[in-house]
Amino acid sequence: MRKILPATFTMMKYEKLIWEVKNNFPLTRRPFLKIAKRLGMKEKEVINALKEIKEKGGVKRIGIVKEQKAYLVGIKGNVGKLTKKLIMKPEVTHIIEREGSEFNLWIVIRADDPKSWLQKMRLEGIALESEKVFKT
Amino acid sequence: MRLEDIKDIPLVPKPFDEIAKKLGTKPEKIISQISRMRKRRFGAVIKPDGIGYKASALVLWRTQNPDHVGKEIAKLDFVFHCVKRPRKPGWEWDIYTLVIARDESELQENIRKMTKIAGKDFVVLKTKRIIKVDTG
Questions:
Q1: pLDDT tens, A76-114?
Q2: Model-level pTM?
Q3: 8 A C-beta contact, residue A118 and residue A111
Q4: Do the Cβ atoms of B132 and A92 come closer than 8 Å?
Q5: A30, A80, A117, B126 — which has fewest CB within 10 A?
Q6: Which of B43, B45, B123 sits opposite A100 (nearest CB)?
């Protein structure tokens, strides 16, 4: 944790800053000034910290984020084989190995008809559509 | 450049002024258009392990009142995503949350905090390995 913290930053401020820019970004002419005021910091400190966090890969970007109405699909099988099959597919946006259920690989796909997609890919699994997105 | 293309604002005091200049319009107009977007949010895209959050789990909840529960637990900072998905035969969960934490014990503590809102009927699908994440 230490090494990724920008110098002069306390953990609390660092975390608060990240949640502010993710969940509570102010849409005003000077958004970083507003965030700075909320956190008791200077605008320049906020901007510099974000630059540093971005450089280190914690923040990928700040902008418009679309609500993905994608399918979450749980599948079971050999992780290595499944990964080989799926990793280059552009419609597969996430591949994550998880424990705790009968399905060991969880993927997110952008497809209109997940059932026929699964058939085409010769996969067995459970496709779960998103009905309501509370947080993305 | 269209409004949709505002993927990554510059880290400067007046980011929307800069974008407006490129688009040949006024910053106020950009800001009000972004505020009116539907099915979108504006803010940072975070990579949890890039900010020191090494532990995560997909936690699924069964509840009588998914709309209320989803809305309330989405407010917690460590709830990274929160989505309602319809039940399937043999797979009867309502709310899907991606919970992040710095380590294993904090993850357990976060889940414990969630039970106060969401109840005790849940399953934890612990992240074993993140193989692909393409958030665009």
A1: 999 999 999 999 999 999 999 999 999 999 999 998 889
A2: 0.83
A3: no
A4: yes
A5: A80
A6: B123
